[in-house]
Prior knowledge:
Layout: H1 3-6, E1 24-28, H2 32-43, E2 47-52, E3 65-68, H3 74-81, E4 86-89, H4 96-102, H5 112-118, H6 121-130, E5 138-141, H7 144-154, E6 158-162, E7 172-175, E8 199-203, E9 209-217, E10 223-225, E11 229-234, E12 237-243, H8 249-266, E13 270-278, E14 283-289, H9 299-302, H10 307-316, E15 329-336, H11 337-345, H12 352-356, E16 362-365, E17 376-384, H13 387-400
Parallel strand pairs: 1-2, 1-4, 2-3
Antiparallel strand pairs: 5-8, 6-7, 6-8, 9-10, 9-11, 9-13, 11-12, 12-15, 13-14, 15-17, 16-17
Helix pairs in contact: 2-10
Adenosine-5'-diphosphate binds next to strand 6 and strand 14.
Amino acid sequence: MSDRQASKIDPASGSEHVILPGATIGMVGGGQLGRMFAMAAARMGYRVGVFCGSSDEPAAEVAAFTVCGPLTDHSAIEAFAKRCDVITLEFENIPADTIAACSKHAPTYPDASVLAMAQDRWIEKTTLREAGIPVAGFEPVYDRESAIAAGESLGWPIIVKTCRSGYDGKGQHRLNSPDEAALVQWEGAESGDDGQPPWVAEALVLFEREASVIVARTLDQRVETFPVFENDHQNHILDETKLPANVSPELQLQAREIATRVAEHLGLVGLLCVELFVTPDELIVNEVAPRPHNSGHVTIEACATSQFEQHVRAICGLPLGDTSMVVPAASMLNLLGDIWEAAEARETLPNWGACLDTPGVALHLYGKHAARAGRKMGHLSAVGSDLADVSERLRLARERLLSDRG
Ligand code: ADP
Ligand code: MG
């Protein structure tokens, strides 16, 4: 037995499901979620290998080793997976064949069935509804006529979304009336393998606020949820996550129960985020993502265990960490490429000095080389005793990125 294999077995429990520090974790995907995962895993003594498109992606730059190639390239998949004791991923749009090929070499979490659900909004919504999870009314859409029919049955306005490959509001349109259905280019959206519709129409939810819950689950069915996060979006992109959420204790408990139910229903191993709409008296699930989530970045500073460490613990079969807050209040503010573009228009760079001169503000940058409007380049977080003060400090720090250099 090689050292690598020996490290799979926990001497205390004798369980083969426990992957101990020193072992190698494979991460499929090279974005910022993979990067922060790799940093947390390295801190715990794991080696992280990243499989991604190119060696300058955010996660590749902090990994112990990288295998670069198209995610569908079977010789690259094999070269990567052979070196790993356990494999996970940082985004759900990885081809199912890649995950199946990885799992021939090492346990791979979450498994292909969870990904299939998360890759297609139609499958996702029908799966959640079947599990008794509250979701907004929805209808399949193929073309202009079926969009109009969906609006008539759900009530206008509706939100139509492509079922596959949408993120950060991409592929979504709000339609206020039948006339507006003519404005959408319906052709060309991809459908699922089993004849699922290319689009889904949803009833517009008049929410008070948006929230999310992250849940972790292990192979031996232990489950732990994080406190509820409150999320503010700008142009359909997450802008700020606040903790604690301004949501009643009853709804918070319900939100954590919903997340647990989703994880159990899917047989999840790993981490999953449930995005929720909070209306005055009920919670409605918007979507789920079986991986670390932007709204969970605040846990790095705010909670006893970060979402990234919890992901490591969950897939390695370790005890799940304490998710409680270690401070009374915390917040996270995204830094989008718009800031870089605005700085460039003034022939300068973001003013990092002024930003970091704001008391208690932590800077996280993902090492992305090209800034574009709407692209997530990094985030700021801060903790304190008062949420309004924490949030104000973060906004000041972000504004200062575009202040003149003194
Ligand atoms: P993405 O995959 O781009 O995150 P979401 O479905 O989460 O897509 O939509 C992004 C944002 O758009 C949501 O966080 C919410 O602010 C808004 N939104 C989406 N669907 C609805 C809906 N049915 N009713 C009201 N707002 C919605
Ligand atoms: Mg979303």
